[in-house]
Amino acid sequence: MNKETGDIASDGYHKYMQDVKLMSDIGLEAYRFTISWSRLIPGGRGAVNPKGLQFYNNLINELVKEGIQINVVLYHMDLPQILEDEYGGWISPKIIEDFTAYANVCFREFGDRVAHWTTILEPNAMAQGSYDNGGLPPNHCSYPFGSNCTVGNSTIEPYLFVHHSLLAHASTVRLYKQKYQAAQKGIIGLNLYSMWLYPFTDYAKDIEATERAKTFLYGWILHPLVFGDYPDTMRKIAGSRLPSFSSYESELVTRAFDFIGLNHYTSSYTSNNPTTIDGPLQDFTADLATLFRGTKDAPPSAMILPGPMVDPHGLELILEYFQGKYGNLSFYIQENGYGGSDDTLNDLERIGYLTKYIASTLKAIRNGADVRGYSVWSFMDLYEIFGGFKTHYGLVAVDFGTEERRRQPRRSAHWYSDFLKNNAAIESECDFMTKTPHAQL
């Protein structure tokens, strides 16, 4: 991105003690981070890298010392290259055994101090970006659906990736519950990327496209986890390209979670995309057959990308939708935040955004949603996959132009600290901050 790399980024590898102290000063109750499979087990299986093991133990112990709850993600686009080269990574069922073995190392080495485990982050979003158009690692795609890929098959690989992700997740959950949970007393779940979807018009085709998109984005993951199989709508559209679960696999994935994590930033307007659904070659995007708009006047895109809409009411609506469709699941809002190109310390827009979404979360809880926790994205600026160093989400600013990567809390960090310590400015605003669902910042 912008010819930049995340090799050093905010340099948390060397500055973790300073960062944990800053978390404690702000008043953070929990911190979520991702363990790098490649750092811990560079060969994908077998020998553990002692330096990787030491780093994660040091970080975890520092968090324990400061009384901060530890929430760990096991996987987000960081696959040991050797497994990609050997058998194609997530498109092969071999990944299930290797991922479960990697998770076993994490449970064994860190589980006595970890409260929450999330197996895989945003598989529903990675399917399109990583295995259809090829814009995200490991950059799989095929003509005419993607460009600049040297490997891939966009017609089937998005479905294989999610299928094997679900089975690897379920295998890992079974391992944790059978071997570790009773003693370690943690919980384990899966994460989804989520947007609330509004029909672009009242025409039947746009309403149908909106429901189809909900099925392809959310039912794809949640339907197997709750009911043991993929939604009928997906089976009808994707046909034999959508893998099937054996009876054993169906039983394995059903209810294989303690919670569902949601990454939620925005909402989108959705409309039918008639140019793709009847084509001779079908990829996931063609099956989805939906166009997304971040605002009413924005150009449509077939890509599932976050837009600028600030819609706290959408968070309430998606939680209500999940409750009606899949029962009263337990949720954690694992990511919610405001990113901008302005590197100001006086970030009033971020404070306004967070105030509205926290108020909306509280309102959803009062309306019956089983939301167990909320986390801001992000604690500090970092290397963003779509924005590099040009997009700033952090409560804490990082000066990437200096070797020391100087940290400086923004105004939002002070506001959030006051909220956490004094429950300030949310209760009184809950009733009116969500009344204008499509407010633009």
What kind of assembly state do the chains in view correspond to? single chain
Q: Give me the CATH architecture of the domain at 29-304, please.
A: Alpha-Beta Barrel
The mean pLDDT is 90
CATH topology of the domain at 29-304: TIM Barrel
Rg calculated over all Cα atoms: 21 Å
Count, helices: 14
GO molecular function: beta-glucosidase activity
Family: Belongs to the glycosyl hydrolase 1 family.
InterPro entries: GH (IPR017853), Glyco_hydro_1 (IPR001360)
Subunit structure: Homo- and heterodimer.
Characterise the protein shown here.
Homo- and heterodimer. Keywords: Disulfide bond, Glycosidase, Hydrolase. GO terms for molecular function: beta-glucosidase activity. The structure is a single chain. With 441 residues, the protein is of the alpha/beta class. The protein has a domain of 276 residues: TIM Barrel (Alpha-Beta Barrel). 42% of the residues lie in helices and 15% in strands. It has 14 helices and 10 strands. The strands form 2 sheets. Strands 1, 2, 3, 4, 5, 6, 7 and 8 form an 8-stranded mixed sheet that branches. A two-stranded antiparallel sheet has the order 9-10. Helix 5 packs parallel to helix 7. The longest helix has 28 residues. 47% of the residues are buried. The C terminus is likely disordered.
